[in-house]
Amino acid sequence: MKLRCAVLDDYQGVSLASADWSPLADRVDVRVLREHLTDREELVAAVEDCEVLVVMRERTPVDAELLARLPRLRLLITSGMRNASIDVAAARARGVTVCGTASSPAPPTELTWALLLGLARHVPAEAGAVRESGPWQSTVGADLAGRTLGLVGLGKIGGRVARIGLAFGMDVTAWSPHLTEERAAEHGVRLAKDKRDLLAGSDFVSLHLVLSARTRGLIGEPELRAMRPSAYLVNTSRAGLVEGAALLRALREGWIAGAGLDVYDTEPLPADDPLRTLPNVLALPHLGYVTEGNYARYFGEAVEDIEAFLAGAPVRELD
After folding, report:
1. Which of 5, 17, 171, 208 makes an SS bond possible with 52, Cβ 3.0 to 4.6 Å?
2. Where are the beta strands (DSSP E) in the chain?
3. b/e map 97-124, b = 16+ CB within 10 Å
């Protein structure tokens, strides 16, 4: 009898085309759910017969309550090797194996710069004017060369963002709770003396930290007020790093010039959320990791994870 596998939140409907699932054809029936199911009852009804779930990182939370309602589940696979929305301990307690996949830091790095450049040169407004036969040149762009880029976090993605900033001729500075001068120097950037120093001295601020109890709300009203009125904030990391209400006030009241956002407290972003309509926000639907190469990694290694599990030797298990 075949196992049943559901791939959740495949918004673009590309999971089956992004990898070769044929090695599983005689052992696993795979179904794809393209719509995000926010209603817990609908979600349970859709997947309660499944032994295997493949989830995209942090699109659908898999907590202890959901796991208790999925007694057939034996294998849970997430894109990437970290997923804060999965209760791994609860899964392990119920005998569910949790595995991950590789994930490249290149796509979110590239999208960070898409947002930053879009903000600096007013790309959405100018492109819209061209399309709609509006005014020819209605804005004046901000220079990058000679300006200061402040990075909150200098890990795999932050380090890549730093190198690109240096290539643009920017003065790059960085800060995080445990960043050292030696580590900053390895990337050719200056270490800010503290968080406020970085925020107050930067023309562009980009966030690249893991969300944790220590970093949640790291950027609140005092931090946003410390930024220059001409400065831009870019967040392709985690929405919880920034206090949402404070960010809305900052954007509405002009504490900062604008924000480039790819992550939100609620996803998909509600239709009436003001972030959809504020003129100084460049908002994208969490596309940081959404590229052909990353999807090939995610779903190709999901197939490998299932094969290894069926062989009794799971790989890439999450702690």
Report:
1. 5
2. 3-7, 28-32, 52-55, 75-78, 97-99, 148-152, 171-175, 190-191, 204-207, 232-235, 258-261, 281-283
3. bbbbbebebebbbebbbbbbbbbbbbbe
Give tens-digit pLDDT for 10-47: 999 999 999 999 999 999 999 999 999 999 999 999 99
Mean pLDDT value across residues 96-107: 97
Catalytic residue among 48, 110, 221, 267: 267
For this structure, is 238 an active site residue?
A: yes
CA distance linking residue 189 with residue 191, whole number of Å: 7
Preceding omega of 268 cis (within 30 degrees of 0): yes
CA distance 286 to 141: 25
In the residue annotation, 304 being an active-site residue is answered as no
Q: Quick check: is 208 catalytic?
A: no
Residue of 122, 147, 160, 286 marked active site:
286
Q: Which two tokens stand for residue 282?
A: 């460049």
Whether this prediction's pTM lies above 0.85 is answered by: yes
